Amino acid sequence: MGSGGVATAAAAALGAVALAVAMAGRSASAAETTSSSAQTTSSAAATTSDCTSMDLVNHNITDYIRWSNMSDRLYLENGACVTLTDIYESRLDDTGNKGPLYPFDETTLDISDTVTGSWYLESTLYITEGSRLVVQGLSKGGDCDHLLLASSPEKFINLRAHGGELMLDGTHVESWDLAAGTVDENNEDGRSYLSAISEVITDPAETCDGTAKNDMGEARMDIIDSEVNHLGWYDSESYGIAYKVRGFCKDLSNPELFDSVSVTGDILGSDIHDNYFGHYSYGHQGGNWSHNKMHHNIGYGFDPHDDSDYITIHNNEVYNNGWHGIIASKRCDHVSIQNNHVHDNGHINEAGQRTGNGIMLHRSSDYGTVKNNVIHDNMDSGVALYESSYCAVSDNKIYGNKNGIRMSLGSSDNLLYENDIIINGPDAKYAIYLYQGNDIPDVSDGRPRNNHIFDNSLVSDNEVVKMLNSDDTAFEGNVVYGRVSRFKDSFNTLWKSNFVEDGIHDYKLELNSCFDPESDIEEPDTYEDVAAMEEEEATTYSYSYSYDFDVSESGFFCA
């Protein structure tokens, strides 16, 4: 029997019964999980948005709210705690409203002289020196149900906490082209955005490229029970909702910066959509991003980036984003991604390739937890680990993606357990996929190793497991529906106590691959023995070496 014979038979059997049964059971469970995780109510912990009034007995209002004609910019300064009404009233005089904040009429879609609870901001606003701006909905006792940020081909603005705090609570913020009477849907020519920037000079002698230039202090931005949409473009710090610690040297020579400076803020119970990125952070510490809908963003959904640690991403629905649904990238350790419904993310690129994972831990995003998520119909893999280690991926329901879980470029010492993975359809590849890849590793030699994959349900009508350039991987206690697993240039794989559908599995060993001698499968003596075993109807296991490569020099088991 040729090397494809067992796989062909397996695909037919799998498609007929086992896959249908498995899909039905897991679809019901997925629907149940989705029902609870898609809620975007503010059952998440509330964050106070009380605001202490300015001291206008001992200070002029211009001590707190300052307009600069030169920069066309409004500043909140000197620890002010300010509302939009405060800003509006500070800019009124005998000649009327001098701007840049105007009441907005939702009927005429134009600025107004009457305060309506909707506001149009036509110039950039910086919140500095520990000041705080509260943008709060009327139902919560505030003065703003709708804030429109001027955004057109001629001009776009930035609402920025730069050493201050921005609170959005029960409100709606979006870009607005006043002349066109609609949101700004064109991000190519710049588009208005929200940001929180922490900038502290920790070492005045530091001269590296990237060091902090201004001693502005730390920033915070909270988005609670709000809608934020049609913001951001591709320029740095301008992605829509952006958190950033400035001052990290481009040569990575001052990692201690993140021990003393951070940017903070929570995103809870909100609807984030149609932005360039749904969210981006750099140096964020301890954020809670839960009970949100994150969808239809051009790039990523949630994107905690460089050194954003101890982030909680729970109970969100993340869908129809153009790139990855959730990605933690570059030294984002101890990220917790749990109870989310992540689906339909990614796109087909110009080369016709499916790209975009449901959840990805990238470049030393170590000690992460990916648990109890429903992850389906993403363009690439359900979960991807890329040079990330000591992570736990468990209790997820993963189906309808190109791959189930993939680990690459030196991802090591990870635990994958109690996941239900189903791979089927014309674009389906592998339930479990390990490989080195062609990228240059930062902290490893590039070969995945010491990963433990146990107690999972693995279903594939293609290849169940594919391993390239991977060492010391353990598969234990898994339930396997499928006929073929392929091991290429992979050393010392432990295969033990796995239940294989109908007791038949085709193990293809290529380029010096071999099993750990502790594996509980029997070594075939010759090709003739393999063929004879495959012809028996009651075979316990079947084995084969690929006919396209030499038999492992070490034999079926590693020496």
Automatic annotation (TrEMBL):
What are the EC numbers? 5.1.3.-
Signal peptide coordinates:
1-30
Q: Which residues cross the membrane?
A: none
> Which stretches make up the Periplasmic copper-binding protein NosD beta helix domain?
269-430
| SUPFAM superfamilies with a match to the protein in the record | Pectin lyase-like
Keywords, ordered alphabetically: Isomerase, Signal
State the organism of origin: Ectocarpus siliculosus
Pfam families reported in the protein's UniProt record: NosD
Its recorded name reads Mannuronan C-5-epimerase
GO MF term list: isomerase activity
